[in-house]
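Example for reference:
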Amino acid sequence: MLSACAVSRTTIQSHWADAAYSGPPLNGIAVAPLFETRADNLSFECSAVEYLAAHGIEVIPGHSLSTAEETQTLDENELRRRVEVSIAENRQGGRT
């Protein structure tokens, strides 16, 4: 997949982690920001995806999971379903 980030860079000012999490290590993440505008979503998403991928983390860009119209209305269950479909497709070589 080819993509380009032509918008201003976003930097992470702070982060949160669940110290009580005791599950397996996470080796992949879906980045699906929900800012007020699509431009803000794409700006953050592009920066986060680039950073995570550079650190060897498998990343699913949020814009690949929904259309621009769906971004503000997609519910969590449907988003989770689409992430699962995307993971299955990636494992089968359907997408990169």
Remarks:
- The chain has two helices and two strands.
